[in-house]
Amino acid sequence: MENDVDAGHIIEITLNGIENEELKDSKVCFKFINYLLLDEVQFMQRFEEVLNSLLL
Q1: Disulfide engineering: 26 pairs with which of 8, 13, 22, 46, CB 3.0-4.6 Å?
Q2: Could you name the domain of life of the organism this protein comes from (predicted)?
């Protein structure tokens, strides 16, 4: 928000429950996010690949 990001564009994603089960898939998550602040990333398979893809 310090960089003029609208609060409505900030989404908290929890990966340790079933409510965001589909986002544990690295390809689905990659298409979903713009900014990345994730907690419990150890629940997502191949998370490192999501990070590396964001660098491209």
Answers
A1: 46
A2: Bacteria
Structure tokens at 49: 């690949």
Residue-wise pLDDT for 5-48, tens only, equals 788 878 788 888 899 899 888 888 888 877 667 778 888 888 88
Per residue, the 3-state secondary structure of the chain, as one string, reads CCCCCCHHHCCCCECCCCCCHHHHCHHHHHHHCCCCCCECHHHCCCHHHHHHHHCC
Cβ contact 26:55 at 8 Å: no
Closest C-alpha to 25, from 1, 54, 50: 50
Report residue 47: phi and psi, to 5°. Answer: -60, -35
- Give residue for tokens 């690949």: 49
